[in-house]
């Protein structure tokens, strides 16, 4: 057994007592005895079992996948004087001085439900030495080690600290920013016997320095504008290092955009590399990029701005106090009721709100449109690095060779030539600028498609064909037609280096307007039915940002005083009244048949090739009893219900967007301890701009799932980086819906082909953590909802074929997302053609009503409390409603629908799992 495998095995054993103690603290009482015996006991025992051969192979493959993603995903943001790469070899190692606490306590992942143990991740210093062949200044490493561990300024040798799991699931906000070695330490002349400072010794060691700066994240966490800027300690460190070394490389270890406008003040900072959260072995890719073994080809997935408060969404995110920190209350209705016994992460008050008054102008769509339409706007002062930006060690020339229109398909043929000296990959980015009449709001720059090239040798040219549908450029008109519309006029199709720099373009002219509604062109080709407005109650106040860029626009000024008082309509929406069968128009003739015994029992194995719309499904479902259906819909915490008599297996499904792994929540419930590899943060996968990288990750996760016996995965997460403030941005892909969706769809496709139900989450408009568990009302217009926030989910369903969806905590307008018929039934199923199950997020908050869920198109409750209550909780409520003469017809009808959706999804995993 190799050293890697031994390390993997040891990961299972450590922390058992800590994990079990934490578990007891979470539950706060005596656990249900039978559950302890069966699940927690199995989970504890599993921690000591060696990996199977299948698990070892999946681990080895996954480690390779991590590195393949980070090789292409890390972004060379700046490289003045072509300072990088720094050539090294075994015989001649380049010397580097490392600065920054994150150089020794690197963020590999972050906190919350996707937390993993990263103790054995490849430390940055080890990767630089072993993979990069760099020699490091040991004194600086010990300086940072000692200060991090005990707050002492010392270069005495000490044992290297654990790479603490910076993704601790029970951790708080203390890991967002770590303290840095104080400035005085660099001026201290007592550290050496010769009276010289550590900086003077470092200058003797090398004229090259590397600074690592990072920001953490997690569930229930928000990063304020102050936390996205250099702290005073970090600014001091940058000043000291940049003033004393000729060549400085800055490494950004953050999934959230930070303010980097200080770069122009320090010409010594030659190069900047963004690594997000690199996962288990991604640091090796950084080492290879630094020494030139890998030619960087990543491109940014966000717009990096000089002032995060310049974003039109910033002032509507939450309230800031006078010091620039998030204020208490974070946009709460002053007349909202208190919460009795609030749950984890829940405030004692209910009723919060967030306003998406910027409409479609998110990220680059704002900055590029403002630049194109407002002469007074200084783009170069506002934007440090544009969306899609990234450098290479070679140069490329690109041009559009031809445009071909066949029916609804538009194909651009693009030539890419390597004009530099080394092989490399490039990214072909295609955007469009639609005609603007003022009737429908539009951005001047919109990503429509992209591709990553192969490795192109110096002097070689490769041609690529990129095809997209005309309807992909349609805008949603929420004011007039309430439908997708392609306005007549000229559409400029732009080949761009990034969102800002145009390389070439073609004009596509649409002579007549196309309206995708029943009266005109019908549904879009990818929709099953015409898309119509489903979120009109989310509009709230029709005061969205327009191209006039009025300084009084509420997108810039934030909430008004009147917004903090909830109307009666809003107060009423905080609770749900179950309609009776009579109110819904049901009669006794509508009573479904259930619990029937067939002459020949239909087993789930008989259904694995049966189409979703085949009537045999109705016959199969009619065999289920009320109790079985209530259990299917009401007990979905990390598993789906097992029904032995029909051959329905227990479906195990852990959480985590950066790993498929049991944790302190899911492990005891599932009774297993399968822990997969920590992958890079999704934004790193997206920054490859390579759909194949997404598919590779999905396939790798699926292989791990098979080895561990998992058939579901609460991932991928694909909410939008609306702002840099969200503590869960590290779980999401990008500020752009198309990029997010194209990459996520391939992650989904890869995992699905391996027999995994992917729960794409959090559906939808879950772009803030604070207040979201305490009845958070989200106000937006339908154009922004569909074009920005639903787009990744739409692509993950239509192109990825996801069998699962996880709804979100928040309300969209006046309806909780997990009980929103327009979202879950009309859009997801009837428009997009989704065939699978919808599960709630952790079902432990008062505004999440199980009856609203089942009546509106939701299928399963992620009821984390049921197992601690003897196995029953929301399933009992569903069973009571199914037996209540006033609600039984509607409840049973919806339970049968939910059961079909669940068991259909489970049946699709059957073949791949055999």
**Low-confidence spans:** 1-37, 162-172
Structural class: alpha/beta
Task: Round the mean pLDDT to the nearest integer and report it.
Answer: 91
Please identify which CATH superfamily of one domain we are dealing with: Glycoside hydrolase family 3 C-terminal domain
The CATH topology of one domain corresponds to Rossmann fold
- Kindly state the number of beta strands: 29
From the alpha-carbon coordinates, what is the Rg to the nearest angstrom?
A: 27 Å
CATH architecture heading of one domain: 3-Layer(aba) Sandwich
Our count of helices gives: 28
Shape: globular
Taken as a percent bin, the fraction of beta residues is 15-25%
Explained architecture:
By secondary structure, the protein is of the alpha/beta class. Among the domains are: 75-295, Rossmann fold, CATH 3.40.50.1700; 392-534, Immunoglobulin-like, CATH 2.60.40. Helices cover 29% and strands 16% of the residues. The chain contains 28 helices and 29 strands. Strands 1-6-5-4-2-3 form a six-stranded mixed β-sheet, with helices on both faces. The longest helix is centred in the first third of the chain and has 21 residues, at 53-73. The two termini are 28 Å apart.
């Amino acid at each position: 057994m190799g050293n890697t495998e031994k390390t993997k095995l040891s990961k299972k054993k450590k922390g058992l007592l800590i994990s079990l103690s934490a578990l007891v603290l979470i539950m706060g009482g005596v656990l249900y005895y039978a559950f302890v015996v069966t699940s927690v006991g199995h989970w504890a025992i599993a921690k000591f079992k060696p990996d199977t051969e299948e698990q070892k192979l999946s681990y080895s493959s996954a480690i390779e996948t991590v590195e393949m993603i980070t090789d292409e995903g890390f972004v060379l943001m700046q490289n003045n004087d072509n300072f990088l790469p720094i050539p090294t070899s075994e015989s001649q190692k380049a010397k580097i001085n490392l600065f920054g606490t994150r150089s020794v306590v690197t963020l590999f992942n972050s906190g919350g439900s996707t937390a993993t143990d990263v103790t054995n991740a490849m430390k940055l210093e080890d990767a630089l030495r072993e993979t990069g062949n760099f020699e490091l200044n040991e004194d600086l490493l010990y300086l940072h080690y000692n200060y991090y561990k005990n707050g002492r300024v010392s270069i005495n040798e000490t044992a290297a600290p654990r790479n603490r799991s910076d993704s601790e699931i029970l951790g708080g906000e203390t890991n967002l920013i770590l303290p840095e070695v104080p400035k005085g330490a660099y001026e201290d002349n007592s550290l050496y016997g010769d009276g010289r400072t550590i900086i003077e010794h470092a200058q003797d060691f090398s004229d090259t320095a590397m600074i690592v700066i990072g920001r953490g994240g997690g569930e229930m966490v928000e990063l304020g504008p102050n936390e996205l800027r250099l702290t005073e300690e970090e600014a001091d460190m940058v000043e000291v290092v940049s003033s004393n070394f000729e060549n400085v490389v800055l490494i950004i270890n953050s999934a959230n955009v930070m303010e980097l406008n200080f770069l122009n003040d320090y010409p010594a900072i030659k190069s900047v590399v963004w690594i997000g959260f690199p996962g288990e072995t991604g640091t090796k890719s950084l080492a290879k990029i630094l020494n030139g073994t890998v030619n960087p080809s990543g491109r940014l997935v966000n717009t990096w701005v000089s002032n995060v408060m310049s974003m039109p969404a910033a002032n509507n995110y939450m309230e800031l106090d006078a010091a620039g920190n998030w204020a208490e209350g974070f946009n709460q209705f002053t007349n909202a009721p208190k919460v009795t016994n609030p749950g984890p992460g829940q405030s004692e008050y209910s009723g919060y709100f967030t306003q998406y008054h910027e409409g479609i102008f998110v990220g680059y769509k704002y900055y590029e449109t403002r630049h194109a339409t407002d002469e007074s706007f200084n783009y170069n002062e506002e934007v440090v690095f544009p969306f899609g930006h990234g450098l290479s060690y070679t140069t490329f020339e690109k041009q559009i060779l031809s445009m071909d229109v066949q029916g609804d398909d538009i194909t651009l043929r693009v030539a890419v030539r390597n004009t530099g000296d080394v092989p490399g990959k490039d990214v072909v980015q295609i955007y469009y600028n639609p005609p603007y009449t003022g009737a429908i709001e539009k951005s001047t720059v919109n990503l429509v498609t992209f591709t990553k090239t192969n490795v192109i040798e110096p002097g070689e040219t490769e041609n690529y064909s990129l095809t997209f549908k005309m309807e992909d450029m349609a805008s949603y008109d929420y004011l007039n037609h309430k439908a997708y519309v392609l306005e007549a006029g000229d559409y400029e199709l732009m080949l761009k280096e990034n969102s800002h720099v145009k390389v070439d373009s073609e004009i596509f002219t649409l002579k007549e307007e196309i309206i995708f509604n029943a009266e005109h062109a019908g549904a879009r080709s990818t929709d099953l039915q015409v898309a119509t407005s489903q979120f009109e109650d989310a509009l709230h106040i029709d005061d969205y940002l327009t191209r006039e860029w009025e300084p009084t626009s509420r997108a810039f000024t934030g909430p008004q005083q009147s917004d903090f008082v909830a109307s009666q309509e809003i107060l009423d929406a905080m609770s749900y009244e179950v309609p009776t069968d009579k109110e819904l128009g049901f009669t006794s003739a509508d009573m479904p048949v259930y619990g029937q015994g067939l002459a020949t029992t239909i087993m789930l194995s008989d259904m694995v090739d049966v189409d979703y719309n085949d009537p045999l499904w109705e016959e199969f479902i009619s065999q289920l009893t009320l109790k079985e259906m209530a259990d299917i819909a009401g007990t979905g915490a990390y598993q789906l219900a097992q029904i032995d008599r029909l051959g329905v297996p227990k479906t195990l499904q852990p959480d985590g967007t950066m790993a498929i792994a049991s944790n302190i929540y899911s492990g005891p419930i599932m009774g297993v301890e399968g822990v997969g590899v920590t992958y890079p943060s999704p934004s790193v996968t997206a920054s490859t701009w390579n759909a194949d990288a997404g598919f590779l990750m999905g396939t790798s996760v699926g292989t791990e799932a098979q080895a561990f016996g998992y058939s579901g995965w609460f991932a991928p997460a694909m909410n939008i980086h609306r702002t840099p403030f969200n503590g869960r941005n590290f779980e999401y892909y990008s500020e752009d819906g198309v990029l997010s969706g194209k990459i996520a769809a391939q992650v989904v496709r890869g995992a699905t082909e391996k027999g995994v139900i992917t729960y794409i989450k959090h559906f939808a408009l879950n772009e803030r953590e604070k207040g979201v568990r305490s009845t958070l009302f989200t106000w937006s217009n339908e154009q922004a909802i569909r074009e920005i926030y639903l787009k990744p989910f739409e692509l993950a369903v239509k192109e990825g074929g996801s069998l699962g969806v996880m709804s979100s905590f928040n309300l969209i307008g006046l309806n909780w997302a997990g009980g929103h018929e327009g979202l879950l039934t009309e859009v997801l199923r009837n428009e997009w053609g989704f065939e699978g199950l919808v599960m709630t997020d952790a079902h432990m908050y008062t505004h999440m009503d199980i009856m609203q869920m089942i009546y509106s198109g939701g299928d399963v409750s992620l009821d984390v409390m049921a197992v601690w209550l003897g196995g029953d909780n929301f399933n009992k409520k569903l069973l009571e409603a199914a037996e209540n003469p006033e609600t039984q017809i509607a409840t049973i009808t919806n339970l049968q629908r939910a059961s079909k959706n669940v068991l259909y999804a489970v049946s699709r995993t059957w073949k791949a799992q055999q």
